[in-house]
Amino acid sequence: MNIIITCAELTGRMAAGAVVVDVMTPENYALCHVAGAKNACIYEMVFLDRIAEAVPGRDTELVVYDATGTSRAAQVARERLIEAGYTTVAILSGGLAGWCGAGLPVEGDKPLSSGQVLLRDGVYRIDTDASTLEWTGRNLNNRHHGRIAIQGGELGVHDGRLSRGNIVLDMTTITNLDLQDPEWRSLLHRHLMSEDFFAVQRFPTASFMLTGWQKQEGAPAEAPGGIATGDLTIRGVTRSIGVPAIVAPQADGSIKAHAAFCIDRTQWQVNYGSARLFERLGMHLVHELISLELFVLAR
To answer: Measuring CA to CA, how many Å separate 183 from each of 176, 180, 187, 189, 273?
Structure first.
């Protein structure tokens, strides 16, 4: 039996009793799927459970498909099914896109589109309730992590790509998430806001001003990546940085952005506990690198 079959072959096999399985998400299945197909999402842990509910007989012929046949989704689904004991499993060549391109019957709320959502030109304001910065600091014995609220900002898109933007952090909101004892947590909060670290009374905000975006060639459309360059200001000190980031348009017209990177805090005069600057620190030694992870939703 051929592992990869054409749309014409699938039509004949469906008439002979083969069960067709759409392995995409339930949301995609609801929008458009091969008429009569079952749904079991390969990305979910219950994939095989869904198959067992829909097709209890392991000797039933199955044909699986994904969106376009260009990813590994249908292939992985077939491998899992074979391992689970299903004896006859084929893959539809070209996936749902090929089926629709052949003008064959589909069901769902909307006809199949390219699925690619593009960045639309304009200015997007950051949703401060749905956006945050997470931090992690480390020493020889432990690490601490927490969050800093985003006070405001915006992202600008021109010619379908990120062109400018700014993000303002409210340093007065710095929190710790790992210490359970309220006294120790409060002590760390006060320490982070003190002159030893971020001097929040004098510098209540930090900011990042985007000055450039270099698109990553070959990045998938669903998660377009690149390097965001700009000026990071902490404690009144501004330095240029470049960080890898993903800026992804959403179906509702909003933008989600994510970046994870490290900075040497001493470059911004956050010097407490640095072994490069102090000696005989003992338990007060703190690594210079801080890990930062930014989650942004802009509308």
So the answer is: 12, 9, 6, 10, 21
